[in-house]
Amino acid sequence: MRRALASLALFVLPTAGHAAFPDRLSLWAMDDDDGASTEVIEGDDYVAAGWKQVALELGTTLSNKPTAPARTLGAAGFHVGLTTTFAHLPGRWADSANPDGWKLMDPDEEAMPLLVVPTVQVRKGLPASLEVGANFGWLGGTESAVVGGYGRIGLIEGHRTLPDVSIQAGYAAFVGNDEFELGALDMSMNLGYSLPFGPIEGINTAKFSPFVNLGLTRVHAAPRVDLAGSRLEGRLLELTGFEGEGFDETLAPFTFALGFEVQSGDFAFDFSSGYAVGGSVTFNLGLGFTY
Questions:
Q1: Which structural domain, as residue segments, surrounds residue 50?
Q2: What are the two backbone dihedrals, phi and then psi, of residue 139, each rounded to the nearest 5 degrees?
Q3: Dist CA 38 CA 231 (whole Å)
């Protein structure tokens, strides 16, 4: 059993040596592309477009992911686990004529089309079908991390014929980068069902819990450095998916996800895949213990 858990942990939490991403994401690196200056060409500012692309895809990658069944843990429940998010970045292939934002923000201009985010996840059940959770992760291959938290409430749980239904709201922040700030608010509804199974009829110690998640993510990003006097001045602006000044609807994408959890005794394995419209495509693998 210990060997199996160790093998799963190595799979879920990849090491830094396997991450092909820069030590940091840099706004200043967007000042040039392969040694050439990144000037606006015929009104097409691919630097500004690349900054928005990175903000959207990074924000939707780091936001709280639906990795738990729709049913909450219950007042005495507790879960701790390891989760890894693998995110495909479709924007890397959106415009072959111009360099994309990820390439421009990589000082070595060798960014890969995949992000890897290992995360430690903690969830605690509360009375009245409430639950709170926290995530502490690392953007693989960089010096930056993600810290997130959420709360959710079960609207329907344990009904014999109706599905479990819960709603969630949370926030995740990108930390450790002194050149820009980024955060993502998530709001979603989770629908699912728990199906017990086991070797002896009537004595079921395991359960399979599929779920579907529908939600909305709002991303906010802003430079922390003074770009005055540089070629980047006026091009890397504050971006927000929140209502108000500077609102950009592309930074408020709808999200869709499918997943399941298999729990046997205290041990749980989770898988989900999600898509943020216009943003990243994610695959989430997790293992942990639920008490």
A1: 2-290
A2: -80, 105
A3: 8
Task: Tally the residues of the chain.
Answer: 291
Q: Which helix (H) or strand (E) holds 273?
A: strand 267-276
Q: What are phi and psi of 95, to 5 degrees?
A: -140, 100
Q: Could you tell me the sign of the dihedral formed by the alpha carbons of 183, 290, 267, 196, in that order?
A: negative
Amino acid at 10: L
- For residue 139, give the nearest of 217, 82, 61 by alpha carbon: 61
Q: Which residues pair with 173 in a beta bridge?
A: 147, 183
pLDDT in tens, 235-273: 899 999 998 777 899 999 999 999 999 999 899 999 999
Contact between 232 and 33 under an 8 Å Cβ cutoff? The reply is no
Asked if 64 contacts 150 with a C-beta cutoff of 8 angstroms, the reply is yes
Q: Is the dihedral of CA 127, 131, 134, 135 positive or negative?
A: positive
What are the C-alpha distances in Å from 154 to residues 70, 126, 163?
A: 8, 11, 11
pTM of the model: 0.86
181 vs 237: CA distance, rounded Å: 12
Strand, coil or helix: 234: coil
Inter-residue contact 131 to 153 (CB < 8 Å)? yes
Query: Which regions of 127-247 does DSSP assign to beta strands (E)?
Result: 130-138, 145-156, 164-175, 180-192, 195-197, 206-223, 239-240
For 87-109, the pLDDT digits (tens) are: 998 866 666 666 788 888 888 77
Sequence-ordered list of residues with C-beta below 8 angstroms from that of 26, at least 6 positions apart, any chain: 105, 106, 107, 179
**Number of structural domains found in the chain:** 1
